[in-house]
């Protein structure tokens, strides 16, 4: 599943609080709501109806249902479940139906059965308004045990807690849950809508590209596949990037693919070795064109039971994202922004601030945690300071703001009156707030503060403060990235901020030859609630320029990309694209 979509699924549903019934009903509702035609769910198979669809309008109908036994009550009622919902079945009690009763009473839970009978109204007082099929029940005439179920490793009930490991080990059983069914069906519907929007409304062509390929320089590590020829290997593509650019050279003009990508990046919580992207490329397009396309695409395919998306999405330059949120993927659902307070501390007596400010890139940064004094414990502050020391080799000082500015902080006595007033004004602090302060090189100090901002948000939320509305979808374009960034392991060398095919900003091209680190790019990322869910760029379509970037700036082996460089020489149109996922 696309990582971003799984996040969306998670955020769209509230599994723990709803009853199973409600989730089943919402799964069923979303299936009907999102398509114009109601799909035929029982064609070609051994049932007449699904368990979730029967209503009072079906009274008197003879039906055949297939499903899993979800509950049994006093050998009188049985609740049958399929992908569409739940329905109550009345187990016949009369002698003549003894064999039917035996099947339905003896089959273990989660066995698969087929029942045939009549749709009848539930007796007065027994209707269940929480159940979409709660007005009716099935008076069974015949029953067949299709397959019996052994004792399961966990119960198929959404409210039953189970570990992630167990869920993964028995993925096929986990898929029986209403939540997982909902997620997969939502994904399928959204992909369908996306295809509709791209192909039918905007003339895109769905092209499948190879997965056995050769190495692409730069970017993530690739998986290597042995070939039959000794010493020769294939690489699995990190993305169809080269193929989609070649398709533009081939005149395809508008390409998309629901594409599998492979990256051997080790295990990080937000990374998977294989994942899916909605991959897009267009000729004769600029940055605004790609952004508008994506906004339209998401708006069109957005689940119909959610508030519609408002477009255009806001946009933020990379430099501002770093300075105010300490990251290139800011979570804009809440404030607590990083503030530069260097100027206020130019004459400070606090040693580590003095030290930092005496260096060329030295800064002092702060964030204000509203009501932090009330919600953060001493041990939280200690672990924040330890994190800063262990991971950033930086000092972080807390200032607890109290009435009468009688502050409680290791630095309180060194903070002069006007510095204190300045802090209050710049950070708009109030009583019971906590200010966290650090000092160091701009980028490093911002990244640290960005991490602490999220950490503090988690801590406050764990104590019941609502900072990030779970129902909010805060989309944001991050733009104006630098084309290159210093390599982490060797900051003297440069690497691409996006990938080596990204075009420089037209007004910065001259800097490529003199100060490449200052060149801005035509790269844009789409961020949702603090997660990067897409990224793309306008590409270099000039072979010479591409050669220069690969060879001179990035010091890559150009031979590996000679086919692409050659293609760019044969009338490549200007082009750009993006991938979501
Ligand atoms: N291929 C790029 C990626 O996977 C996306 C793009 O530039 O279109 O990140």
TrEMBL record:
Organism this protein belongs to: Bos indicus
Stored Pfam families: GAD (PF02938), tRNA-synt_2 (PF00152), tRNA_anti-codon (PF01336)
Family membership noted in the UniProt record: Belongs to the class-II aminoacyl-tRNA synthetase family. Type 1 subfamily.
The protein's name in its UniProt record: Aspartate--tRNA ligase, mitochondrial isoform X2
ATP-binding recorded as keyword: yes
GO molecular function annotations of the record: ligase activity
NCBIfam families: aspS_bact, PRK00476.1
PROSITE patterns per record: AA_TRNA_LIGASE_II
Keywords per UniProt: Acetylation, Aminoacyl-tRNA synthetase, ATP-binding, Ligase, Nucleotide-binding, Protein biosynthesis
Cited InterPro entries: Aa-tRNA-synt_II, aa-tRNA-synth_II, aa-tRNA-synth_II/BPL/LPL, Asp-tRNA-ligase_1, Asp-tRNA-ligase_1_N, Asp/Asn-tRNA-synth_IIb, GAD-like_sf, GAD_dom
Record-annotated Aminoacyl-transfer RNA synthetases class-II family profile domain positions: 184-581
PANTHER family (alphabetical): ASPARTATE--TRNA LIGASE, MITOCHONDRIAL (PTHR22594:SF5), ASPARTYL/LYSYL-TRNA SYNTHETASE (PTHR22594)
């Amino acid at each position: 599943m696309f990582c971003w979509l799984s996040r969306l699924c998670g955020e769209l549903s509230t599994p723990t609080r709803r009853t199973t019934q409600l989730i089943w009903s919402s799964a069923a509702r979303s299936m009907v709501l999102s398509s114009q035609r109601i799909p035929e769910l029982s064609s070609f198979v051994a049932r007449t109806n699904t368990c979730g669809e029967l209503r009072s309008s079906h009274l008197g109908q003879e039906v055949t249902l297939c499903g899993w036994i979800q509950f049994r009550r006093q050998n009188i009622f049985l609740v049958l479940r399929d992908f569409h919902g739940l329905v109550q079945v009345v187990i016949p009690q009369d002698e003549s139906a003894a064999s039917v009763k035996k099947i339905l009473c003896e089959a273990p839970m989660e066995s698969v059965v087929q029942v045939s009978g009549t749709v009848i109204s539930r007796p007065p007082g027994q209707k269940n308004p929480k159940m979409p099929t709660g007005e009716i029940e099935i008076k069974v005439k015949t029953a067949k045990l299709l397959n019996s179920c052994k004792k399961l490793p966990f119960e198929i009930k959404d409210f039953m807690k189970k570990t992630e490991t167990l869920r993964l080990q028995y993925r096929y059983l986990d898929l029986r849950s209403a939540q997982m069914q909902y997620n997969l069906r939502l994904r399928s519907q959204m992909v369908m809508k996306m295809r509709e929007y791209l192909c039918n409304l905007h003339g895109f062509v769905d092209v499948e590209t190879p997965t056995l390929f050769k190495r692409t320089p730069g970017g993530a590590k690739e998986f290597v596949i042995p070939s039959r020829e000794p010493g020769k290997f294939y690489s699995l593509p990190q993305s169809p990037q080269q193929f989609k650019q070649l398709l533009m050279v081939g005149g395809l003009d508008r390409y998309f693919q629901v594409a599998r990508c492979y990256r051997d990046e080790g295990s990080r919580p937000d990374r998977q070795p294989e994942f899916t992207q909605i991959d897009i490329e267009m000729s004769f397009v600029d940055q605004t064109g790609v952004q508008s396309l994506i906004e339209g695409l998401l708006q069109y395919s957005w689940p119909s039971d959610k508030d519609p998306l408002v477009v255009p999405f806001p946009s933020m330059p990379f430099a501002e994202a770093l300075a105010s949120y300490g990251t290139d993927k800011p979570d804009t659902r809440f404030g607590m922004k990083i503030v530069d307070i260097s100027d206020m501390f130019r004459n400070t007596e606090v040693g580590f601030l003095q030290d930092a400010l005496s260096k060329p890139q030295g800064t002092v940064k702060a964030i204000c945690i509203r009501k932090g004094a009330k919600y953060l414990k001493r041990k939280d502050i200690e672990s924040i300071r330890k994190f800063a020391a262990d991971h950033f080799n930086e000092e972080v000082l807390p200032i607890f703001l109290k009435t009468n500015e009688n502050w409680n902080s290791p630095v309180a006595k060194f903070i002069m009156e006007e510095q204190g007033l300045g802090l209050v004004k710049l950070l708009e602090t109030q009583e019971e707030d906590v200010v966290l302060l650090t000092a160091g090189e701009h980028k490093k100090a911002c990244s640290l503060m960005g991490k602490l901002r999220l950490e503090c948000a988690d801590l406050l939320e764990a104590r019941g403060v609502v900072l990030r509305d779970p129902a909010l979808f805060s989309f944001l374009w991050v733009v104006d990235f630098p084309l290159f960034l210093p390599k982490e392991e060797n900051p003297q060398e440069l690497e691409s901020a996006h990938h080596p095919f990204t075009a420089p900003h037209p007004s910065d091209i001259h800097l490529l030859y003199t100060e490449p680190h200052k060149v801005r790019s035509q790269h844009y990322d789409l961020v949702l609630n603090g997660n990067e869910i897409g990224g793309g760029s306008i590409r270099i379509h000039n072979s010479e320029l591409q050669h220069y970037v690969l060879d001179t700036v990035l010091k890559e082996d150009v031979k590996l990309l000679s086919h692409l460089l050659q293609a760019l020489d044969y009338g490549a149109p200007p082009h750009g694209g993006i991938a979501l996922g």
